[in-house]
Amino acid sequence: MSTLLYITADPGNLQASYSLSVGEQFVQAYKESNPGDEVVHVDLYQRDIPHIDVDVWEAWGTLQNGGSFDQLTAAQQQKLALLNTLLDEFVAADKYVFVTPMWNFSYPPVMKAYIDSFCVRAKTFKYTENGPVGLLENKKAFHIQATGGIYSEGPVADRENSSRHLKTVLNFVGITDFDNLFIEGVSTAGDRAPQIKADAIEKARIAAKNF
Fold this sequence. Notes:
Strand 6 (140-146), helix 5 (163-172) and strand 7 form a beta-alpha-beta unit. The protein is globular. The chain has 6 helices and 7 strands; from the N terminus they run βαβααβαβββαβα. Helices cover 39% and strands 19% of the residues. With 211 residues, the chain is an alpha/beta fold.
């Protein structure tokens, strides 16, 4: 049995959000094809995702210098505990589906905070004399992203900074089996927007059956 983390970073509702509605269809198709697998929904807008702030930074420094967890402030302990829970959950999973809209050429800030929770030395990567090595091998990831314009190709493709960044991060921690699905041009499609969504759902369901 495999565990799939279904990670959503979209504050919209299922009916109005292109990314969430397509992502939901991906999950349904995946469950149909993999009834024995566990699917865990990680809604980043419903989870407490600590940012790397002064509390976290100073807490890490205390521990690295030989201090104990008990020496940390209550705020530091709480934030590190939450980060460790997110990290352990991510490491334990086998597959990952990320669902995001594009905001200002990237994804919502909560997604970056979540990425920071699992990019941890000695847990998901290590440094060697030949450079960094990812520790999360034999896992796979899929990214579903809704965008108002067209960013997978064409004159503004170089402004797509979210899926490219996510691929870079996942490759860094050892997850090299990565694919994505863009739901594109919905802001300018007019009457064609429902068809763009329907086409994306069909592609998502096909991808899910082989994921």
